Amino acid sequence: MGDWVAGKNRSLTDIFITHGHGGHWFNTNVLAERFGARVVATEGTIGQMHANVAARPFVWDEVCPGIPASPVTAVTVPDNRFTLEGKDLVIVEAGYTDASSVLHVPDLGVVVAGDVIYNGAHLYLSETSLAGLDAWRQAIDRVASLGARSIVAGHQNSDLDDAAARTIAETREYLDVAEELFDTQKTAVDYFNAMVERYPDRLGRTVLWATAQAVYGMRENPAEDPVQFIVGGWL
Ligand SMILES: [Zn+2]
Fold it and tell me: CB–CB of 168/147 below 8 Å?
């Protein structure tokens, strides 16, 4: 990615982190140091980044060995906004823990949507399912209200376009389908198979399986700490 950025012959000034999931930012400092860039995030995201660093030994380093050192160097910006070549970049809090924020670029009609809007990949629902999916739906509404034409999704099939209308509608539909199948499917395997049948072309079946194990694990063991099932879904 660093070579790709260098090949653009631009000056990389800021790296924005949408949310704290390690898979979205653990390599950030490699890029930040190479290009002398600032790392920007919300207060909530920075807290989530620290939590993900703490979880490295028993989750991330197990699943993805060889991740470089990942100190949290992100800083907040006043009023959650900064600029690029004089144009506003506006951080919008998404309002739920699984994906803390999105970045709105009004001048381009673009939203960098992190894990609020997916594009052709299975949604990670383990953490969100604890509080119900409505918080996610409200976050989608918030993104939709920005009126962007294009969405940069954190999980994306690169063969697909970036159309906001389609990706927003498909993410909403996926939540509805998942909620219905959580009700009708008896086991994690049943849910996994039903989702694969419903969405044969979506990428990220590892994410689908992690979600299935976590949601059914929590449901079948309500007296136990849910975190062990969220973590265990990846292992
Ligand atoms: Zn993600």
Answer: no
Q: Is 150 left (phi over 0), alpha (psi -120 to 50) or beta?
A: beta
Distance 21 CA to ligand 1 centre (A): 6
Q: What would the pLDDT profile of 127-178 be if each residue is shown by its tens digit?
A: 877 777 998 999 999 999 999 999 999 999 999 999 999 999 999 999 999 9
Helical spans, DSSP H, in the chain: 2-7, 28-35, 43-54, 61-63, 134-144, 164-184, 188-198, 205-220, 226-232
Distance 103 CA to ligand 1 centre (A): 15
Query: How far, in Å, from the CA of 92 to the mean position of ligand 1?
Result: 17
Cα separation values, 232 from 31, 185, 213, 222, Å: 30, 20, 8, 15
**Given this model, what pLDDT does residue 97 score?**
56
124 C-alpha to center of ligand 1: Å?
7
Q: Where are the domains of the chain?
A: 116-235
Please tell me the distance between residue 169's alpha carbon and the centre of ligand 1 in angstroms: 18
* pLDDT of 123 strictly over 70: yes
End-to-end CA distance of the chain: 27
